[in-house]
Specification:
Layout: E1 2-6, H1 10-21, E2 25-30, H2 33-43, E3 47-49, H3 55-60, E4 68-71, H4 76-88, E5 94-99, H5 105-110, E6 115-118, H6 119-129, E7 136-142, E8 147-153, E9 175-181, E10 184-186, E11 199-205, H7 209-217
Parallel strand pairs: 1-2, 1-4, 2-3, 4-5, 5-6
Antiparallel strand pairs: 7-8, 8-11, 9-10, 9-11
Length: 219
């Protein structure tokens, strides 16, 4: 598989090494001649000096035959432009982009980027997984819109303990998909009673996580 990596940041560097080790053919497009020289000295002829948002540069780097383009610069707008050129000019079958600002994720999906990796969410997920007794966990982002799947564990002193699900007012455009109890998994129904230590799996619009968290864990 021929893979174009846009940007020799620390991420791009380690990603390139991993892809080469997996047997892929890789070319890195990087503006900095110094970084290109470092990459070439260590890994061979895998760097092309140039701007990954310029059509002629991508053409020279072999975008027309690339199976995948991965935009891994430190700038969301640069990554978006590179993916757009690859998809619409060179008909690259698969584009992937790293983003830093979560607010930009819906735009990337709307404009057809196949895989969007939110570095902020990755860091948060890593932290959340390491916090003992955590009550909130972001499970995944949903591709179709700016929504996500989250898990919230209800603490013993929460105001919703003992209440029917129908009596809990959820944020707009959100819904509960599963409730995991100590004795099994329950499908949500209006008469379902929420209990302490229930794990609520919910679909929530981007930005609404804190509101839902407050509803399910507040006293």
């Amino acid at each position: 598989m021929y893979i174009l990596v846009i940007g020799c940041s620390e991420l791009g560097y380690h990603l390139t090494k991993a892809l080469l080790a997996s047997g892929h053919e890789v070319m890195v497009v990087e503006k900095s001649q110094v970084r290109c020289d470092i990459l070439t000295e260590e890994l061979g002829s895998v760097a092309w000096q140039g701007d990954g948002t310029v059509e002629s540069t991508l053409k020279q780097a072999g975008a027309a035959r690339a199976d995948v383009l991965i935009a891994a610069t430190g700038h969301d707008e640069t990554n978006l432009v590179a993916c757009q050129l690859a998809k619409h000019v060179f008909q690259t079958s698969r584009t992937m982009a790293m983003i830093k600002d979560p607010k930009n994720e819906p735009v990337f999906h709307i404009l057809g980027v196949d895989v969007v990796i939110n570095s902020t969410h990755l860091i948060l997920e890593s932290l959340e997984e390491r916090i003992p007794g955590r009550t909130f966990l972001r499970l995944m982002n949903l591709r179709s819109s700016s929504t996500g799947l989250v898990s919230i564990t209800i603490p013993e002193d929460a105001g919703v303990v003992g209440r029917r699900l129908d009596d809990v007012e959820l944020p707009p455009r959100s819904f509960i998909s599963l409730v995991v109890k100590t004795n099994g998994v329950e499908r949500p129904s209006g008469d379902l009673i929420l209990e302490a230590e229930d794990e609520v799996i919910a679909v929530i619009p981007s930005g609404g996580e804190q509101t839902l968290y407050d509803i399910l864990t507040g006293v």
